[in-house]
Write a structure and sequence with these properties.
The protein contains 9 helices and 14 strands. The two termini are 34 Å apart. It is an alpha+beta fold. α2 packs across α7 and α3 packs across α7. The strands form 3 sheets. An 8-stranded mixed sheet has the order 1-2-10-7-12-5-4-3. Strands 6-11-8-9 form a 4-stranded antiparallel sheet, with no helix packed on it. The chain has a two-stranded antiparallel ribbon with strand order 13-14. 33% of the residues lie in helices and 22% in strands.
Length: 316
């Protein structure tokens, strides 16, 4: 895995996706990027050291013995800890973390959360790296949410007040090296949208990410140094009555005989469980009705989880 610093040494990368600067962007620029393309890059929003340390420690975690990682496997319905999966002949593994397991004292009866918390306590360098990334991404996401609120003629804190840090979670992702050439149409991660409000995604230099623009065109989303790509997710689409659509994205298999391993870091901002997701009045045109009924965040996620289970059970 090459580091983000190595990306900085490479020639400038051309992309159709807007690149905004965290220190300079305006609400109008952000809204235009979302409406014209559907996503954007946001440079200078997370300290370089936080990104580098997170990638380095992700590499170290995934290098642990398989038995040690599987002690942290998802269970008890808790979306925390380690999971691995096989899709279209490609293996992936991930580590999911949230604020609950990063605090000094954990307050939950979840066995897996307690195990993940203990693992992080036993590996303080790993814990500090993901904590630094977690905090920086939340702060960046908070500013994005405030800009979206301003662009939609809402009070600046409308969304940020509804997104407590304890509802956020992060994901370290490793795609295994593949020695066999891919079959036509094979993907490392199939087309999907994210469930929450916003997502920030950092990539290593192996690429493969594509996004679907609002015009329905699939375009490459190459990795940029110190720069996540920001996606709108499903909850925000419901809130805005499809004015801001969730970004469809996928990771393709490169057309090589040897497909290298790939790492990515993702951060997801979500409303609190008991937040009602109801159509925002400023997102309704004259004579237009809400497309989605009001629903609590936890009800929406329960529905999505059930739909996903039906889909995978039906495919067996």
């Amino acid at each position: 895995m090459n580091s983000i610093q190595e990306l900085e040494k490479q020639p400038a990368i051309s992309t159709q996706i807007p690149i905004l600067d965290f220190h300079q962007f305006t609400a109008d620029q952000l809204l235009r990027a979302i409406q014209e393309v559907g996503c954007f890059y946001l440079k200078n929003c997370v300290p370089q050291n936080a990104i580098d340390q997170a990638f380095t420690n992700a590499n170290g975690f995934f290098a642990l013995p398989e038995a040690e990682k599987r002690q942290l496997a998802w269970k008890d319905g808790a979306a925390l800890g380690y999971f691995y999966t096989k899709y279209n002949g490609d293996f992936r593994e991930a580590f999911v973390f949230g604020e609950a397991v990063l605090t000094e004292q954990i307050d939950t009866d979840s066995t897996v959360a307690q195990q993940v918390h203990q693992h992080l306590a036993d590996h303080p360098t790993f814990r500090d790296a993901v904590q630094q990334l977690f905090t920086a991404c939340h702060d960046a996401g908070d500013r994005i949410l405030k800009a979206i609120a301003i662009a939609l003629n809402l009070p600046e804190s409308y969304f940020s007040d509804r997104h407590p840090q304890q509802a956020d979670y992060g994901l370290l992702h490793r795609y295994y090296e593949v020695s066999e050439p891919p079959q036509p149409g094979e993907a490392r991660f199939e087309e999907h949208t994210d469930w929450g409000s916003l997502s920030l995604l950092f990539q290593d230099d192996n690429g493969g990410l594509e996004v679907c623009t609002n015009a329905g065109e699939w375009i490459a989303a190459p990795p940029l140094p110190n720069t996540p790509i920001v996606f709108i997710a499903d909850v925000m689409q419901r809130w805005t009555n499809d004015k801001l659509r969730a970004t469809k994205h996928r990771v393709l298999m490169p057309a090589n005989a040897r497909i290298p391993e790939r790492y990515s870091l993702a951060f997801f901002l979500s409303p609190g469980d008991d937040t009602e997701i109801a159509c925002i009045e400023t997102c309704l045109d004259a004579g237009e009705s809400p497309k989605y009924p009001p629903m609590l965040t936890k009800e929406f996620y329960k529905q999505k989880t059930e739909d996903l289970a039906k889909r995978f059970n039906g495919s067996k």
